[in-house]
Amino acid sequence: MTTKRPMRVLVWGENHHEKHDELTRQIYPDTMHGTIAAGLRDLLGADAVVETAALDDPEQGLGEEQLAETDVLLWWGHLRHDAVDDDAVERVQRHVLGGMGFIPLHSAHFSKVFIRLMGTTCSLRWRQGVDRELVWTVSPTHPIAQGVPHPLIIPAQEMYGEYFDVPAPDELVFVSSFSGGEVFRSGLTFSRGHGRIFYFSPGDQDYPVYHQPEIKRVLANAVAWAFQDRPRTQPRITMHREGEFDTPREWDGTLQ
Amino acid sequence: MTTKRPMRVLVWGENHHEKHDELTRQIYPDTMHGTIAAGLRDLLGADAVVETAALDDPEQGLGEEQLAETDVLLWWGHLRHDAVDDDAVERVQRHVLGGMGFIPLHSAHFSKVFIRLMGTTCSLRWRQGVDRELVWTVSPTHPIAQGVPHPLIIPAQEMYGEYFDVPAPDELVFVSSFSGGEVFRSGLTFSRGHGRIFYFSPGDQDYPVYHQPEIKRVLANAVAWAFQDRPRTQPRITMHREGEFDTPREWDGTLQ
Amino acid sequence: MTTKRPMRVLVWGENHHEKHDELTRQIYPDTMHGTIAAGLRDLLGADAVVETAALDDPEQGLGEEQLAETDVLLWWGHLRHDAVDDDAVERVQRHVLGGMGFIPLHSAHFSKVFIRLMGTTCSLRWRQGVDRELVWTVSPTHPIAQGVPHPLIIPAQEMYGEYFDVPAPDELVFVSSFSGGEVFRSGLTFSRGHGRIFYFSPGDQDYPVYHQPEIKRVLANAVAWAFQDRPRTQPRITMHREGEFDTPREWDGTLQ
Amino acid sequence: MTTKRPMRVLVWGENHHEKHDELTRQIYPDTMHGTIAAGLRDLLGADAVVETAALDDPEQGLGEEQLAETDVLLWWGHLRHDAVDDDAVERVQRHVLGGMGFIPLHSAHFSKVFIRLMGTTCSLRWRQGVDRELVWTVSPTHPIAQGVPHPLIIPAQEMYGEYFDVPAPDELVFVSSFSGGEVFRSGLTFSRGHGRIFYFSPGDQDYPVYHQPEIKRVLANAVAWAFQDRPRTQPRITMHREGEFDTPREWDGTLQ
Fold first, then answer.
1. Is pLDDT above 90 for D72?
2. Measured between alpha carbons, how far is D219 from D208 in angstroms, rounded to an integer?
3. In chain D, which among 140-159 make CB contacts under 8 A with chain A?
4. Distance in angstroms (rounded) separating the CA atoms of residues B225 and B146
5. DSSP three-state, residue D59
């Protein structure tokens, strides 16, 4: 019954395979980010305003103004991580630390901004095969798992396996198995600064994963979880005299 | 180079299948607990004094004096959980909270004492089939994972799958997959009171799992991790006047 | 914009001090649980239907039907923990594991049901003095911390200090300091089975803590966080043949 | 009884205050890093070989060879964070991810390498006053807390307070209070890649904190905890064909 303002969601895509790979074009004629956005609109309805942006947009679709008006950013990238400007990476990291939700998808484990937010290599084990992936819920009380089948079955997927070199997550929501026998922590939450992050590994340019209703459900849940109705404010150092809890003095650039 | 006193390790076994099942007797002619203890002696050498106890021993092998002289208790039980006296369960729980290490194995997920320490049902998904289990390390810096292959391959095992109804562990060390596609959080640490707990799921009366050198390595590592050289002291409520940090007054039985 | 059914909230009180202590009667003329319930109604409005129950109600206010119709249970108890029937304790634990939210307050750290859910002694350090308590947020992205001042200042409170013998929480939301120098992990989340638990330590029969608007905000946030719109279902063991992920066979009472 | 090779420990210091501030020189006539190293030698004896390095050494004391022969690196820096070369920062991060232990102390929360490993701002609340700091143990089973008084009392210290903008730690070992009322998560563990990190906040150039025996005990415990006897190997992406668990194929620089 609570009436909240709609969440402002931005689905960012690298948009490379859609232009260069026939298979991807067949599976995702509306682009991958367009497909993800459509799924969110279906499930979130009036609760969200969902837009898309792409690497080839002005300012790579990641301008300061655009980010300032984004509550939750979903990110799909794969072959063009290096093409993302360091300035854009810095902006995205700053907005995440300031409170923007961030949902890196699949091969975005190797995006510059995710690596920077994690502090690790974000490397993993992989195979471009045709494994069946089963996504099991290990946090049944987590909002992101609500309404998600146990297991969620993905008939064909690229394999991502452990060791996945990320920090221990705040919450481990999903663990996947692959028919080749590998396992992967496939749904992970992290808080960084004032922002909430959910990494979700299923989804690839060669398989119709983002068309599955269960996957749409996970992503819609994740957007609602990552959303915070707060002013964008990055944590910063503050100096407080004794008893002055609420009146921080600005740090003047030097530690004493 | 540090010289510490030897760890006093007790391997407790239900000793039921060993008496009633021909298959178990063939696999474990020296009993399951005896086999586990022998493996620990091999790997820990002079660092540990390893003894065994069984359900049919006096005081069910869990007398007050026995527990007081145990640094780390390993527990294998399956069909006779209900036969363990509630008094013995209370004693074990108290000693764990007082600092004794505790390593419940496989079907001990349903032991009274583990359920009591977890506060949950400790239920899970299972299948008495012949799955291959692969045990993957997801905490490569954890002492329990040192020297353990990635993956650790168990040719044939009973399937244990998620959802495993235990609290989120302090550290998730191992995740297993089964050839049927299920996954299981198979190596989990928990601290409770002053004690350290490691649950490890591989191991069954029908398969020679405890004969595998890699499994012996996990158990030896786990004993060393769970060991603490501390006086057995259960946490208790204490009343402190202002400034009297180190001189607790005994609680006299009434909250004010 | 999402329209959800109202949350059904039950505030349970021991109702002992209200009948026997003049000071408590002066501070809480509408009882402690009545005051807490009124605060929730103010802040949650049409999002919640808030009722109260007390130890001296039929079935101690914790009958099967009552619990089955409760989404989130808040619990205040202190001197009469032992008077709560073990049957009622078992019912509450079962409903929490089945999905009911549970919010034990202050001295409810020693309630039978909290001890049973934690598996530890739940003991702590304390002093019946007049400390100023400052409640600091260490998880600024947590829904329970939204709109809560940093620090939240409680002019006078009983001191609760570390070591607080509970399992490491899933999320540490608040840490308090007391003017005597002690610290306490004062806002902690735990998931157990299908239920979500939030322990919050501020609040005492001798101080007007539950009249503070900031405390009401924490409790309203906690109710919204602990609420899940799910059928009450306790985790249970299930047997699955290979490939039968969705058709559990009932466990027939014997492990094979 | 286990005989392990000695741990190779390097205590790195910025060595700025020691050259420019009379107060620091009086408190730490042997430099801060020299004092810390002496404390470790006292407590670890033959278990460790402890060396020191400083910002004004060749290669800033952080050459490739030096790091390759270091098992655990302690780091004290304050005013000269910016003077550390980005190449040196990259080397240290790489060695940590490859398995080197890392113990940033006090104002090293703002060192480039800690910020890079955390992915956050690492900002905090502070006051250059004369607060009494009480360090409370909230993980009594943690090896770093063994033998440490509860509380550990530091008569005079700079105040560091929450919100400390770091990821949720793997384990929260210590929480401090300050006489001004602030709290701080003062002892935190993190695993990153193959390395183990312990941040410990007490210690400042203006107070004799590193002369306190209890602080020496914490640091010696932390070194033993962060040490791993493993070959230095950074996690990296590997490609595995089905069933080839142990024979990774090198990634050739392109994702497929």
1. yes
2. 15
3. 159
4. 11
5. helix
- Quick check: C245 and A141 CB within 8 A? no
DSSP per-residue string spanning B47-104: GEEEEEEETTSGGGG--HHHHHT-SEEEEE-SS-GGGS-HHHHHHHHHHHHTT-EEEE
List, for residues D137-194, the tens digit of each pLDDT value.
999 999 999 999 999 999 999 999 999 999 999 999 999 999 999 999 999 999 999 9
Please tell me the distance from the alpha carbon of residue D208 to that of residue D130, in angstroms, as a whole number.
13
Interface test with A, best of C141, C194, C227, C246 (most A CBs within 10 A): C141
ipTM of the complex: 0.95
Class of domain D7-120+186-232: alpha beta
Chain A interface includes B169 (CB < 8 A) = no
Compute the nearest-CA separation of C41 from chain B (Å): 31
Q: Which residues of A touch C45 (CB under 8 A)?
A: 1
Closest residue to D137, CB basis, from C150, C163, C171: C163
Kindly determine whether residue C162 and residue D132, on different chains, have CB atoms separated by under 8 Å: no
Question: Chain B closest CA to A121's CA: distance in Å?
Answer: 14
Tokens read off for B97: 């909270």
CB C106 within 8 A of CB C133: no
Query: How would residue D3 be classed by pLDDT, with cut points 50, 70 and 90?
Result: low
Listed as ranges, residues in chain C with pLDDT below 70 are: 1-3, 250-256
Residue A172: its chain B contacts at CB < 8 A?
168, 172
Percentages helix, strand, coil for chain D (3-state, rounded to 5) are 30, 30, 40
> Which residues on C lie below 8 Å from A140 (Cβ)?
194, 235
The residue extents of the domains of chain A are 7-120+186-232
Q: According to the model, what pLDDT value does residue A256 have?
A: 40
Task: Give the nearest partner residue to C119 out of B121, B192, B234, using CB atoms.
Answer: B192
Would you state the pLDDT for residue D251?
59
Cα(D32)–Cα(D203) distance, rounded to whole angstroms?
Answer: 10
Enumerate the residues of chain C whose CB falls inside 8 A of the CB of residue B161: 240
pLDDT at D252 over 70: no
Tell me, what's the pLDDT at A100? 98
The pLDDT value given to residue D256 = 40
Contact B123 C190 (CB under 8 A): no
Q: What is the pLDDT at residue B255?
A: 44
Span D68-72, average pLDDT? 98
Q: Which residues pair with B11 in a beta bridge?
A: B52, B74
Give the Cα separation of C210 and C166 in Å (integer).
Answer: 24
What radius of gyration do chain A's Cα atoms show? 19
CA B106 remoteness from chain centre: 9
Instruction: Tell me whether D131 touches chain C (CB under 8 Å).
Output: no
Contact D47 B2 (CB under 8 A): yes
Asked if C179 has any chain A CB less than 8 Å from its own CB, the reply is no
Q: What are phi and psi of D220, to 5 degrees?
A: -65, -45
Please answer yes or no on whether D168 and C163 come within 8 Å at the CB atom.
Answer: no
The pLDDT-based confidence of A250 (bands split at 50, 70, 90) is: low
Among candidates C123, C168, C239 on the partner chain, residue whose Cβ is nearest the Cβ of B126: C239
pTM for the model stands at: 0.97
pLDDT of residue D199: 98
Closest listed residue to residue D131, CA positions, set D44, D241, D206, D240: D206
β-bridge partners, B195: B192
d(CA D135, CA D131): 12
Residue C135 structure tokens? 């409640």
Classify the C-alpha dihedral B98-B110-C240-B177 as positive or negative. Answer: positive
What confidence tier does D97 reach under pLDDT thresholds 50, 70, 90? Answer: very high
Cα–Cα–Cα angle for A107, A183, A218, nearest 5°?
Answer: 55
What parts of chain B have a pLDDT lower than 70? 1-3, 250-256
